[in-house]
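ok so I'm stuck.
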Amino acid sequence: MKQYSTKRHASMETQQETKTRLLWRIESIYKKLDAMYGTQGLIMKASKFDAIELMSSSVLQERVLALSRILKENPTLNDKFLENQIPAVLDELEELLVEDFARRKVENELEQRIQQRIEEKYNDYIHDIKLQVIREQKASPENARTLKKLGILEKMEYTRLNCSALNILRPTCLNEIIGQDKAVKALISRLNNPYPQHIILYGPPGVGKTTCARLALEMVKGKPQSAFSQEAPFVEVDGSTLRWDPRESTNPLLGSVHDPIYQGARRELAEEGIPEPKLGLVSEAHGGILFIDELGDMDPILQNKLLKVLEDKRVFFESSYYDPHDERIPQYIKQMFEQGVPADFVLIGATTRERQDISPAFRSRCMEIFFEPLTREHIKQIVHISASKLQINIESSISDIISQYCCDGRGANKILVDTFAIALNESEKLEQVVEVRQQHVYEAIQNSRLSTCCLQRATDEAEVGKIFGIGAFAYQGRLIELEAVAFPAEHPGEGSIRFNETAGSMAKDSVFNAASVLRQDSGEKLKDYDLHINFIGGGKVDGPSAGAAIYLAILSAIKKKPIRQDVAITGEISLQGKVKAVGALHEKIYGACQSGIKKMLIPSENGEDIVKKPPGMEIIPIRYISEAYKYVFV
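replied:
not stuck anymore, here's the structure
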């Protein structure tokens, strides 16, 4: 019994020693915190983390919890741990204390060094400030003459004419771009995705290419699937006006480095002979869109330089004045010369030229979108929308008249604005809504010396030796009026063929092909006839697509078979009598539709090219020229 009592007494002494050591460790941590933050600072920190009451508690666990909240800076800690867990918790808290103490010591040493450096440089700073004050107190560059010119400029800022009518009529949303639904959808889809592509827009002038490019970015900015942020810039430039110096002293597109001595630079850089690169449009468009209008008219060498930027997404500068070891050069200039300037943008180029006129290297890096020429119905819609924007009343026939004299939206708006001006000056009361009548629009048309877009029109009559072919130029199609007349030769086998020399060698080859097919199919020899073939209106026919029309005109002239004048045909004729595929089919269909053609014969090889047939016109694919007889001849 006595032995058991002795062991119990020894165990109680051991527990008491352990508790005492824990108290010493806790007190030591509190003293270190007091030394780090000060008494007032420690109280404020403990109050911030809801540990004031826990600090003064007589329970070890609560005092340790207070230390945990202070060192871990977490007022929500409420751990319940046993007394035998306290040593491990204190080990963790001591580690946090050591780390915090070391960090504060480094910060204090750094502050001391900064303060020491400020004291050392104090006199230099005072000297620089005095020099700056002296410079500011120098005589002002302003005098009576310069102030007078400043006043004139400020007065000019307040004197403004009204804005241009064409600016008012410009589409403000994609829904106002008429007749380009497919092109608009294609453009938006190529921009509104995580990987936007460079794009070239083809099409005739005045159909909405530039406006569509301006509005497209606003549609896709900030969308979740778009790569463009809300701050994405839109930089626009006319490619036909871009001028640059081959010596790279001037390049508004890519940027340039000015000679600091002869071309001028900032004064503090010029005095030291330090070159400063001037950023170009490609850097301004970083993160957004660079739109180049009339891309096809841009300098070819400048196009090649732009291709390099498209590949690298960065612009690099060079200058013989740049010395990388010169310590006087600012860091931003060093970075511009050594690392280049970012130029990550999406290029959208618009052109009225044919795709073969654009550099193949450019085309290979860009998606291509084609804008359709506008039909008469599209022109009528544009006229009505513009009339509502001008707040004028127009007669119902006005839109139909305007659609006969223009093929693009800009031209239609110009006629309407001119008509509005004539009607406005004839009205007696300015308060009234302007009424625009037929005589006003005809006067505007006569003043501008305009002629109808479609010089050839389809009719319901039939004529011998006369047929309509179809040509295409500048993304628009036109009817080619072709006629032929045949007379028996005075001496069999001694006939002659007369043909427009200006039509070109390819059209002449089509005549010889047609002669061979005619002899093969019907046994007729053109040498037995004096044949005259004429392209009405003159001009060169570039391509073999008029071959089928030439054959049918010759056959009609020889056989005296009338040809329907509401049918047109396009296609190359081969020596086997096949009708071969041709290009620019969409433009040719547009031209036929504009001229009132009811049936259009096309090569069967082009049948897959037609996705949507125009209303009011039948498109018939044929493989052999003989298949056209039942559609062409009466």
